[in-house]
Amino acid sequence: MKNHLISLLILFSLSTISTAISSELPQSQAQKLIRDLNLFPSELINIVDANHSAPPLLSHNANRLVEKRFKFPGLATAGVSVEELGHHAGYYQIQHSYAAKMFYFFFESRNSSNDPVVIWLTGGPGCSSELALFYENGPFTIANNLSLVWNEYGWDKVSNLLYVDQPVGTGFSYTSDKRDIRHDENGVSNDLYDFLQAFFAEHPEFVKNDFFITGESYAGHYIPAFAARVYQGNKAKEGIHVNLKGFAIGNGLTDPEIQYKAYPDYALDMGLITTAEYKRLNLALVPVCEASIKLCGTDGTVACVASYVVCNLVFSTILSHAGNGINAMLVDWMRNLEVGIPALLEDGIQMLVYAGEYDLICNWLGNSRWVQAMEWSGQKEFVASSEVPFEVDGSKAGLLRSHGPLSFLKGHDAGHMVPMDQPKAALEMLRVHDAGHMVPMDQPKAALEMLRRWTRGSLSEETSDSGNLVASM
């Protein structure tokens, strides 16, 4: 351990970490877009004048939600006209902040207002959820001529769909006060919970709908923390009761200690590195990474930033053979977010972890390992359960393992963004084959089918007439 700590300190001292946080407002094009949608507040009361003292925390009684119903002129319709659909966008003035505003899109279901409410969180950290909206699982996709066309596998076909830009500083969400920048999941989850309370106050017609939390990549941190915050709020009878039914993590980073150790194994299995390189990684870097993550769990902020530097040498070494995020979240990166999940499972809240087989950064192997290592009352039964094919339209789209409220799906022919790679299977879902980091992008059909089955409690069904499902909407 002494040698590990010495190595950690040496590596950390050689690395330059920038913790400067950008609090700039959206750039001119983004400002124009929002003003054109009449979403930008008419008075920028949240802008801090450097010549004046800082404002107090925003009032509890402030009108915190500014929302606009909108439509896209000239969008070709398919069945239901866009005028009949409820498409909304707006800003939420974060309650416990100095000047922060959180941007969101909300798309009512093309199918039924009784469909579940599904919130999507893109990871990064610092990656806008509009990436998923337009490239993965939203109602529209962007054509080559930059026009919008209907997405055949949009998740709004089976859900009332929310996209949120968070943490503050991501996408169109902004602040003029650096004190609003979040550095850990406590701050992130509290902001999201406050937003959700304001959203349901604005849309009381959806309060009784089932509610699911979804997302990918670094949302493997956001989602467990947010789900736990909603669960705690319900137990404490805070505000509006949220009908939380489950949460899904796609190609996520949740338990770094287990997942980073899986990098060399996955890279060797996929032919990205040689056996000699594999041995060198496991001898020189993986033990130091593992030790540094343990320090993150006990020694706080400095150790967590150091572990980020050390452990990413494993990943960058593999990339050497084979835009800026939010630096504020570096202290959060190596923390284990699995610890709060068992309590949710014990209370029957569903969890789905899915991963495309062709993603390196948050690969299916590391995700499978932390899910199986998680201690809860059904752990032994889950580990002992058999994998069954996940089929869409009679074709094998992935491999599914389930027990009780816990499911793990490995997606074929998809990478990091499953809803983009396998959109129909993701809508049906969500492990999807031939998929990478973004499964809904790589396999959108499979991703849609995954979502449909999972939110209806039928993820393990052997067949599905998903072709008719999609054609009828």
TrEMBL record:
User: Main localization of the protein?
Assistant: secreted
Pfam families xref list: Peptidase_S10
**Signal sequence residues:** 1-20
State the Gene Ontology BP annotations. proteolysis
Q: Which GO terms describe its molecular function?
A: serine-type carboxypeptidase activity
Keywords, ordered alphabetically: Carboxypeptidase, Glycoprotein, Hydrolase, Protease, Secreted, Signal
What this protein is called in its record is Carboxypeptidase
**Lineage start:** Eukaryota, Viridiplantae, Streptophyta, Embryophyta, Tracheophyta
